[in-house]
Specification:
Blueprint (H helix, E strand, L loop, with lengths): L3 E4 L5 E4 L2 E2 L5 H13 L3 E2 H8 L5 H18 L5 E2 L4 E4 L5 E3 H13 L9 H13 L14 H32 L2 H14 L4 H13 L3 H19 L5 H11 L56 H12 L17 H9 L6
Parallel strand pairs: 1-7
Antiparallel strand pairs: 1-2, 2-3, 4-6, 5-6
Helix pairs in contact: 2-3, 4-5, 4-6, 5-6, 6-7, 7-8, 8-9, 8-10, 9-10, 11-12
Length: 349
């Protein structure tokens, strides 16, 4: 039986055998993704309200019916189960979903072993997860007229984003512990690229460069870290970051005299407690788009954004709260970070 393959990490696409399934309608693609990721049945009224919130019940159900018809024409025969008032992908459908494969691999790699060691088998799972994470969830895809779907998409993206960061961190720690600094550096670069404002990742990459004998690269990394912090937050690097830079500059951090054993010959271990299993709540797939996923708790301080935060919270929770607020700006300016901070309970901030 030919497998249906759905790619959601990056621009979404569907493949069936050797052909790409062309749906034509963005709402049809969004519907397939939603059914595949949640992998459960949904009432027609729920799906109509999710994708066509401005339509009344009759019009929304009519649009859903036409969309389901176009999907039935494009997808493999019998892929959809639309009997009665509920809609779902068939339970026995041979479906491969990249974000589900990513979650499975990352969770297997991050699950705590009895002795808290990161062995070669779990490292393989983590590297597979990182390989699958080619881009953010539904990168570049949005439904501006469907805020509930966009909200669901946002929290799915953030959950996967955090799991990716945890996987990268543990791979880096494993190679660093084994003394294989050159192997750790590419993963540390990806960890930094995920969130350039996360100074622990910046410091790790700086130290790896220094331990690999690449002092000039370590200095450039500090300079880039300082530039990003100044540009986005109007802040200086933390004292720990600056102290590490000064130690590298003064050549107080040098490569070890002898390289550690190769990872294949001696699987790395991470000290007890260093490998943290992922928060189970972060991987719970929401049963309804209004069921919010938990927000990240280990984000860097949101410095220099007090006025924007105050305005954003007023728009969302004030006397006349808005259903949808759009943050606009060039990539990397910190829109997601600001949105996450605004979504927190001010008492927890």
């Amino acid at each position: 039986m030919t497998q249906l393959r759905l790619y959601t990490l990056g621009a979404p696409r569907i493949e069936f055998g050797a052909r790409t399934v062309e749906l034509g309608l963005r709402k049809a693609l969004a519907l397939v993704v939603y059914l595949a990721v949640t992998r459960q049945s949904h009432t027609r009224d729920h799906l109509a309200a999710l994708l066509w919130p401005e339509s009344d019940q009759r019009e929304g159900r009519g649009r859903l019916r036409r969309t389901l018809y176009s999907l039935a024409e494009a997808l493999p025969a019998g892929a959809l189960d639309t009997d009665g008032d509920v809609v779902q992908l068939r339970r026995d459908l041979d479906l491969w979903l990249d974000c589900a494969a990513f979650r499975d691999a990352a969770t297997a790699g991050l699950s705590a072993a009895p002795d808290h060691a990161l062995d070669a088998g779990r490292l393989t799972h983590l590297k597979r997860a990182v390989e699958l994470y080619t881009a953010e969830f539904l990168n570049g895809f949005t439904l501006p007229d469907s805020p509930a779907f966009d909200e669901w998409q946002f929290f799915q993206r953030e959950s996967l984003h955090q799991l990716y960061g945890q996987s990268l961190e543990q791979i880096v720690r494993a190679y660093q512990t084994a003394g294989d600094f050159a192997e750790a550096i590419p993963y540390a670069r990806r960890w930094v690229a995920l969130d350039p404002l996360h100074e622990p990742a910046q410091r790790t990459l700086m130290r790896l460069y220094a331990m690999a004998g690449m002092h000039a690269a370590a200095v450039r990394q500090y300079q880039e870290c300082a530039r990003v912090l100044e540009a986005e937050l109007g802040a200086e690097p933390e004292e720990q970051t600056t102290a590490l830079f000064e130690a590298i500059r003064d050549r107080r951090i040098e490569p070890p005299a002898a390289k550690g054993e190769a990872l294949a010959a001696r699987p790395p271990t991470v000290p007890a407690g260093a490998v943290r299993p992922p928060d189970a709540a972060a991987h719970t797939r929401p049963r309804h788009p209004s069921q919010r996923s938990p927000l990240a708790h280990s984000l860097p301080a949101c410095i220099g954004r007090g006025r924007e935060l105050e305005l954003l919270r007023e728009l969302l929770t004030g006397a006349a709260p808005r259903r949808l607020v759009t943050l606009m700006g060039p990539g990397g300016i910190g829109k997601t970070r600001l949105a996450l901070e605004a979504a927190r309970d001010p008492a927890e901030a």
